[in-house]
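haha ok so turns out i had the wrong file open the whole time. this is the CORRECT one, sorry everyone. sequence first:
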Amino acid sequence: MELTQEQLDIIKSSGNIKINAVAGSGKTTTIIEYAKSRPKSSKILYLAFNKSVKLEAIKKFEEAGLSNVKVETAHSLAFKHIVPKNNYSIKANGYKTNEIKELLQLKGNDEQHTEFVIANHINKFITFYCNSDKAKVRELNYIDTLFDSKAKIFVSSFYEYIINQTRQLLNKMNNGEIGIIHDFYLKKFQLSNPKLNFDYILFDEGQDASSAMLDIFLKQDATKVIVGDSHQQIYSWRYAINSLEKVDFKIYNLSTSFRFNTKHTTRLGI
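then structure:
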């Protein structure tokens, strides 16, 4: 297998780096070769973005003979550290608006169904908070996430009530009174300031990481590698941030797409 100069530069690199990789540029091959070139005694964590990518990565690292690489998603890692210890039950599909209304016994204008609109905003606020790097709900401004002017006016009118009820629902999850959502145990993991026992952490699909995921990653003592495509963010609706642009690591690029036999001139940081 002949590697490009860009791939070789990454494999030979040292310290914390970020890699901007276009589609079809041999990203997985590069990560595997990077891991191979590290000492055999190294403990390496590969963070995949979702379960399907995780399963595929496990197969590829096993085929490469890299038994020192542990493959996880941020959520699977958080689950193992948080859920069994607290004996939490999981509300796998999250809470519907009417469930939140009933759980919090929300009050509003029945004729205008105000309580259902409030419940909807509480649900979104919880997702916003759990994906943020902030410790407290009040450190965030949920109104800034709204684009519709009518929604902004509505939320502004009930903002204190929405904040308090958002905190109430989070407290119910934290106390184990109700099932927790997946983002909640990730948030609790982030707030616990975990120290992961790895020498290298390879964070794939970094353009779709949440602030909570990035905070966990950046606080580790390991050598850190974050990989992604700055033009392929697809989870912004879940408050993902483009971590590649927020991380101050040395930049490397994988700009040749073998899939289309083209070279992309758009590079991160140029």
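The mean pLDDT is 91.
again sry for the mixup
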